[in-house]
Amino acid sequence: MTARVGYWRASAEKAIRDAMAGLPEGVSLKDRTAAVDAAYPCGPRSGWPYKVWLKARRKALIPFGHVPKGGLRPAEGQLQLHLSPLDRAKAKSAAIAAGRAAE
Question: pLDDT tens digit string along 25-75?
Fold first, then answer.
């Protein structure tokens, strides 16, 4: 069974794939981003189609060095999980204890 992909996502991913396929090897991130942005297929840049486009764009450009706005990403290969208040307190306590043990 294959996963169902929405119309806007499929459209965005196809446009981005086509834009990147026409680029030469070693092109800069700036030029790659400009080519992807020029391939936007959905008319006005607003609403749900634009949000889907931005997500697909971010996903496609990260392997080439794009750093998304809106916060730090976890280190490569690490899964960033949100900690509960109890888990945060445990982690803080363990860090303090480790600091005292190192003294």
Answer: 889 999 999 999 999 988 888 899 999 999 999 999 888 888 777 655 555
Q: Which residues of 60-78 are buried (b: 16+ CB within 10 A; e: fewer)?
A: bbeeeebeeeeeeeeeeee
Token pair belonging to 54: 């931005």
Dist. CA 51–CA 45, nearest whole Å: 9
At 32 the three-state DSSP class reads: helix
Q: For the chain, which residues make up each domain, given as ranges? A: 7-71
Q: Any idea what the Cα angle at residue 80 is, between residues 4 and 63, rounded to 5°?
A: 65
Gap between the terminal Cα atoms of the chain: 57
d(CA 21, CA 15) in angstroms, rounded, equals 10
Give tens-digit pLDDT for 87-98: 888 888 888 888
